[in-house]
Amino acid sequence: MKSFLLALILGFSIVANAQDKVIGVVTDAKNKPISGVNISIPEIHKETISDADGKYRFTNLPTGNFKIIYSYIGFGTQTKDFVSKDKVNTINIILLETIHQMDEVIVSTVFNKLQSQNVMKVEHESVKTMQQKGATTLVEGLATIPGVSQISTGVSIGKPVIRGLSSNRVLVYSQGVRLENQAFGDEHGLGLNDSGVDGVEVIKGPASLLYGSDALGGVLYFIPEKFAKANTFGVDFGHKYYSNTLGSSVNIGAKCSSDRFKFLARVNNTRHSDYKIPDGNRVTNTRYNELDFKTGIGYSDKNFSSEFRYNYNRLLLGIPEEGIAEQTTEKAPAYPRQAVYNQLLSLNNTIFLKNSKLDLNLGYIFNDRAEFPESSIPGSNWHLKTLNYDTKFHFPQMKKFETIIGVQGMHQTNLNVGTEYLIPDATTKDIGAFGTTRYEFGSNVLQAGIRYDVRKVDGVQHGSLGDEGYLASIDRKFNSFNASIGYKTSISKATILRLNVASGFRAPNIFELSSNGVHDGTIRFEIGNPNLKSEQNFQTDLNLEYKNSHFELFANGFYNKINNYIFIAPNGTQSNGFDVYDYLQNNANLYGGEAGIHFHPHPLDWLHITSSFESVTGKKQNGDNLPLIPANKWNNTLRIDFKSNKTFKDGFASANVEHTLNQNNASLFETKSNDYTLLNFGIGSKIQLGKSSFNVNLNGNNIFNKTYIAHLSRLKNDGIPNIGRNIVLAVNFSI
Asked: How deeply is 604 buried, as exposed, middle or buried, from its count of CB atoms within 10 A (0-12, 13-18, 19+)?
């Protein structure tokens, strides 16, 4: 069967004019061939591995200037610039051993440089690493990255927070497309499953220059699963078991590639019961079910590269209202509940024009979100349809200059199909144009850019003036001019300094402008403000990194000034038994940062000691505290990497101590939070049996069953603790 499928996809390849464009051998310092080295050309989405003799090759390459990246665990990442114009280019590479982590190519910034070459500090984390930490959900894994936390409702709903900013201030990209899934609601989760996702890049700070409105607080850029390497076929099956929620997650994937055509598909099914707190009780109706399907087709030749991907996600989840009530291990959500259906289609194309290239990306998202208060008849039900387009032209490189210009836009409609109207039917239109230039001189890099955006929001009147549930029409236009400048320098061979200054903006969303009614998910009466202004910010970031053979250190500091910061607060009245909340504005300031070390002493290179501290403070202009600011956190990990042999590879064992400090800087309608310490462990390995292999991970989170309440838990006001001890067993087979 395996041979048949591989032959089938090879049959679609156009091989008449195929010529080797790059060949070579990868060796170590002793001239010994290295097999299994990952070799990629990011600009054209080409990737291969070296064979048993260290040999590799790429075919069907377009004419132009490219960068080949060689990476392998235990060796330093190397890059090689080359000009593709001859029939055969021979490039031999020598990799040097190192115990540093591999240098990653950053794809969320337009120049796609290695992290060490990047002007902007971007955090990269693989999903595999997050899973090795025992994360139950994708957002829980994100919260292990310094500077990132989550607003949670049990384990079913998690909203990422970057340096104290969340919801529509954090832009999410998936499959190269801006994800639109009604992120403004407190109880609206991310809507992404970690199945079929390779990793995430986190931009902490305004990224409006690259992404426009809603990137004021930062960007989460999820990197989809890679296609199979050329002329290979693979199938994998995975299963996870969660002791606390009696949950299970099953996924199966298959992918194959020829020199030109690529295909993959993956399906995941996840089911959880109500989560258990340390006293043995379960929090009623925190259960959820999720079905996720992803597929993709790719094609590339000398002139053109294209990828089409599709993602279907169905999430059925309970909304906890009763706290500790009915005790059951049922997995079907009770009422009230949500049903969210999300479909994402993306088409990413690159056209090669000799020494330049043109990126043409399209995305379409259909989000169907329904809230069921007490029966199968939905109360609020919104159909959100979004069309995105993104075009970038890369000018030919001139000496030390690289320049990119682009146009991005969005057309979005929101339609009410439920019995309750909280917001009106509305249309949002976006368009923005930007230009950015990078100049490299010696060990210094300077990057700058400008951008102009226009957003138009139109809402249709619902009901009659004076009637309950009346929604006024909306006709608002917002525009903003933003700029950024960044500087990176190598103070010494081991030390990098980055300084970035940028402005960003966020136009108010339709919820903030026009809501008028009870929001079932948040259980409050929300009143919008049609006169809200755009949020506009100015942020300064300073990053310092030091790295030698056995010690790494980083320190990040930021200051973020936001004018017209939008927030929601109770006004002291009630409507139909619900507290009434108004959307208000005030200028605000946020400041803080992250710092950490990584120590791997010689000759104990298999021992890794890491420690990081993160802090953020948020204040309104009048001195009041901003809401939803995470508590300061100190994270410490001791990890041991096992030496590889023919059977056991990439083994590890880790112990983690996470200490979260008191949060006494609560806003006027929040309560303070106590400190707590959690102990977690993990152990795992890749086991090779012939040509087949499987990975086994065993994790224990909160192993002392500590009772605690996170400051950003939406169940905090009811005194409901977070999840107790949770043992996660994960097995993944690859064929």
From this structure: exposed
The predicted structure's pLDDT at residue 348 = 94
Helix (H) or strand (E) segment spanning residue 434: strand 426-441
φ, ψ for residue 593 (rounded to 5)?
165, -170
Q: How many angstroms separate the most distant Cα atoms in the chain?
A: 83
Q: Which of these, 556, 690, 529, 691, lies nearest to 616 by C-alpha position?
A: 556
User: Which pTM was predicted?
Assistant: 0.90
Rounded distance, CA 412 to CA 431, Å? 12
Tokens representing 128 are 């595999």
CB 560 within 8 A of CB 358: no
Query: Which pairs count as long-range contacts for 142-147, CB under 8 Å and 24+ apart, including other chains?
Result: 142/200, 142/202, 142/220, 144/635, 145/202, 146/556, 146/594, 146/596, 146/612, 146/613, 146/614, 146/635, 147/123, 147/202, 147/204, 147/556, 147/593, 147/594, 147/614, 147/616
Q: Judge whether 532 and 585 are in contact, CB under 8 Å.
A: yes
pLDDT value of residue 380: 84
3-state secondary structure of 62: coil
Instruction: For residues 382 and 374, give the distance between their C-alpha atoms in angstroms, rounded to a whole number.
Output: 18
- Give which of 168, 187, 166 is closest to 179, Cα–Cα: 168
Tally of CB atoms within 10 A around 307: 21
- Judged on CB neighbours under 10 Å (0-12, 13-18, 19+), 655 is middle
| pLDDT band per the 50, 70, 90 thresholds, residue 16 | very low
How far, in Å, CA of 367 to CA of 178, rounded? Answer: 13
Tell me the pLDDT tens digit for each residue of 452-486. 999 999 999 988 887 777 888 899 999 999 999 99
Query: In this structure, are residues 150 and 141 in contact, taking their beta carbons and an 8 Å threshold?
Result: no
> Which segments of 516-660 are extended strands (E)?
516-519, 524-527, 535-547, 551-575, 578-599, 607-620, 633-641, 648-660
Report the distance separating Cα 354 and Cα 359, nearest Å. Answer: 14
Mean pLDDT score, 290-297: 96
Residues 6+ apart with CB under 8 A from 11: none
In angstroms, the CA 518 to CA 502 distance is 38
End-to-end CA separation in angstroms for the chain: 12
What are the b/e assignments for 381-401, b being 16+ CB within 10 Å?
A: bbbbbbebbbbbbbeeeeeee
Each residue of 508-524: pLDDT tens digit? 988 889 888 877 656 78
Is the pLDDT reported for residue 3 higher than 70? no
Domains of the chain are 2-98 (2.60.40.1120), 122-734 (2.40.170.20)
Q: pLDDT digits over 407-447, tens only? A: 999 999 999 998 888 888 999 999 999 999 999 998 899 99
Residue 678: per-residue pLDDT: 96
- Candidates 159, 170, 168, 158; CA nearest to 205 is 170
Strands of the sheet with 170-174, listed across from one edge: 122-126, 197-204, 218-224, 170-174, 177-178
Distance separating alpha carbons of residues 281 and 724, to the nearest angstrom: 10
Which amino acid is it at 187? E
Per-residue model confidence (pLDDT) at position 521? 59
**Among residues of the chain, what percentage have pLDDT more than 90?**
53
